[in-house]
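Can't paste images in this forum, so I'm doing it all in text. The chain is below; anyone willing to post the predicted structure tokens underneath?
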Amino acid sequence: MPPGARLVARAFRTVPALRAARLDDARLARLRARPLPESGAVAALAGLVVGRVPAGVVVTTDHHGALPLRLYTPAGTSPRRALVLALHGGGFVLGSARQQDWLHGRVARDLDAVVVAPDYRLAPEHPFPAAVDDAWDALGWAVGHAAALGADAARTCLLGESAGGTLAAVTARRAVDEGLPGGARVVHQSLLYPPVDLTEALARTASYAEHHAAAIGSAAALRWFRDAYLGPRGDAADPRCSPALAEARGLPPTCVVLAGHDPLRDAAAAYADALAAAGTVVEVVDAPGMPHGFLGFPRLARDAAGVVDAVVADAARATG
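Text version of the structure:
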């Protein structure tokens, strides 16, 4: 891995608070009690790692019932902006839209899109299917408010990082199966190193065996996150948990990002192959030197900017 990514990996190995496989209720509560501030010295310091909203993008907040929404809108006016529903990562247990300001802001600016990012409910307090339901509800809110936001609901895209990629894939499938109101249509999805198969089949992939002890996304951490997300009644074989097990036909053009040092790599690559075999136009963006989650620390991840450029370029082809 490049030096910046190695530095982050070393931090995950040596700082107890970052070891997801060892999270207990108290440590989880402490992590969640320290959200990234919007301004000040801590925010500035964090920005050196997680990045900042780029210049020219305005951030506002809203709510859909009890569901918080973070909105990213390019400055100025445009008659035909795309609409993007962005779903953050964090293993269904951690994370927030705020933590991915850099990614969401880059997509808003470079795609000329309005990005709607919900803070969906997190496990283990809210196990499956709470996050799935929140993602769907947020999509409904976004397309219903597209005109007021200055966006075109007929040019809706989905974007999901890590666990958010799972939610994006599930939401895309549901949009195809159930449709969206008022002529809205999902025309593209970007799945960034998504965990598309939560069943034990994942453990039989070569990348899982090779990177099972990875500092970011180790096998132990993946099991912990999965079990927390499923709760006592969830089923990993449910296609809403593992979109790799869902019907592959009829999905919109899809961009799948792979990270070379990621236990999830081969399962995500196989999902991309399955979509392509089913007739979906698929673009695979490979970052062979990167670990899982590298778009969460773009200032230290050499490939981050180029990968987002490729993701935006693929979405732009689909949105016209």
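The longest strand covers residues 151-161. Residues 163-178 form the longest helix (16 residues).
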